[in-house]
Amino acid sequence: MITQNRWQHILGVARKCKEFAVKYKPEDGEFAEDMFLLGMLHDMGYEFMESNASHAFVGGGILKRSGYKYWQEVALHGDESVDNMSDELFILNCADMSTGPSGEDFTFDERLAEIKSRFGVDSSPYKKCVIEVEKLKADKRYSKIL
Question: How many angstroms separate the CA atoms of 140 and 124, rounded?
């Protein structure tokens, strides 16, 4: 179920997606609108399950059945094994990793520290996020949006 804190996180991610989209494609207002909506939908899978690990896959599947054009980005967000991120997935992952659990602005390092405090340094969620952040920082698009 989506909690009040999760709603605040979702809105924070949506606003970050819009902000990053404007920086990435300043002349494309439709892209900014699309990215805001992607941010609003990225954690919808939580409404239908309790497991943190598969919320992206479940949400992506629902959106695929609905014909949403960025269903795959929802399904793949937070997946550290993805090497060739679309622009949309890159923006979503950057926004998700720079937004705290209650919607507050975080740096990547602050977000990693928050995840470590919740799950532990040896946890799978923390280790996966460390890999994801390394990939985001190494991406040539990183300097365009942050």
Answer: 27
